[in-house]
Amino acid sequence: MNAFDIGLLILRALLGLTLAAHGYAKFFSGGRIAGTAWWFDSIGMKPGLLHARLAASSEVGFGLALAAGVLTPLAAAGFVALMLVAAWTVHRANGFFIVRDGWEYNLVLAVAAVVVATLGPGAISVDDLLLGSDRIDGALGFGVALGLGLAGGIGQLALFYRPAPANEA
To answer: Distance between CA 67 and CA 116 in Å, rounded?
Structure first.
């Protein structure tokens, strides 16, 4: 075990558990899944109930997978897709900075996940335990995380994002 592997473990745990907690909150905090579904409908992600369930499940699943270092490039792709959709539907109109509810935080989470996929999960991971040197990282990890993530996020927006026209909002 070296400093690099410990650093990757800390980064994966922070990123993954943060996203998983966000998904957990969609299920069990505030308005729960019904309130989350209403909110998704209100921002134009229709049908809201489907997207509430998908977002909450994806956040928990991809978050825990990245934290454990399981299928790391795919988990990172999930981060990219989720953060792209969140940035576009909720934060885009507010500019970059998070203090104005901008997309800064979404970018940081997505890029950090892509960096983890590029570097690999490290020696303290399920991927390393099961796959060893056959795990996907480097340029391929980068490509899987960024490519699949962008395709997933753009695809979801193209298929389901139907915001109300500005004069009806």
So the answer is: 11
Phi, psi of 161 (to 5 degrees): -80, 115
Tens of pLDDT along 144-162? 999 999 999 999 999 999 9
Please give the pLDDT value at position 11. 97
Measured between alpha carbons, how far is 86 from 66 in angstroms, rounded to an integer?
Answer: 19
pLDDT tens for residues 65-85?
A: 999 999 999 999 999 999 999
Q: Is 161 helix (H, G, I), strand (E, B) or coil?
A: strand
Does the global pTM surpass 0.85?
A: yes
Q: How far is CA 49 from the centre of its chain?
A: 19
Instruction: Decide: helix, strand or coil at residue 57.
Output: helix
Radius of gyration of the chain, Cα coordinates, nearest whole angstrom? 16
CA distance to 84, 136, 140, 148, 154, per residue, from 144 (Å): 16, 9, 6, 6, 15
Q: Which two tokens stand for residue 82?
A: 């989720």
Locate 21 and state its tokens: 């907690």
